[in-house]
Amino acid sequence: xxxxxxxxxxxxxxxxxxxxxxxxxxxxxxxxxxxxxxxxxxxxxxxxxxxxxxxxxxxxxxxxxxxxxxxxxxxxxxxxxxxxxxxxxxxxxxxxxxxxxxxxxxxxxxxxxxxxxxxxxxxxxxxxxxxxxxxxxxxxxxxxxxxxxxxxxxxxxxxxxxxxxxxxxxxxxxxxxxxxxxxx
Length: 184
Known about the structure:
Elements: E1 2-9, H1 22-31, E2 35-40, E3 45-51, H2 56-71, E4 77-81, H3 82-90, E5 104-109, H4 115-118, E6 130-134, E7 137-141, H5 150-155, H6 158-161, E8 166-170, H7 171-182
Antiparallel strand pairs: 1-3, 1-4, 2-3, 5-7, 5-8, 6-7
Helix pairs in contact: 3-7
């Protein structure tokens, strides 16, 4: 029996730095024994299957080490299963179907989205931008897109997310990863 996972890499292929070509990433994952390895876009999204019951922490650690060994630099990774990704999409408090993909993002976290971490953020000061907390995710509504968002900066400040790995995906990518992990 196998389990399908999505791999989310943080901070690669940005402005020509920390280059991780997707064909090489697929080879690294296959070299670890994972099957049905597919990538999506150049921003560090991969889907693969592996033995059911794999320990996600050990799986993540092995992938991070293999990437560092192959590319020569460390890349923080998050590994999420199909059910989790589907629940993130289903539990979105914003009207995702009515928005453009660039207006809605999921900031995936390596740990809980503890409300205390985000309590100091004055939501009204950033309106009409807004956010909501979910299961190891922050939903971010940015009508003008992520690149111009002041709220995104506040949510990802080192002081706010200290000790967490955070990586953002726009809603089009969120939906596509759900489809890919479900075999659609």
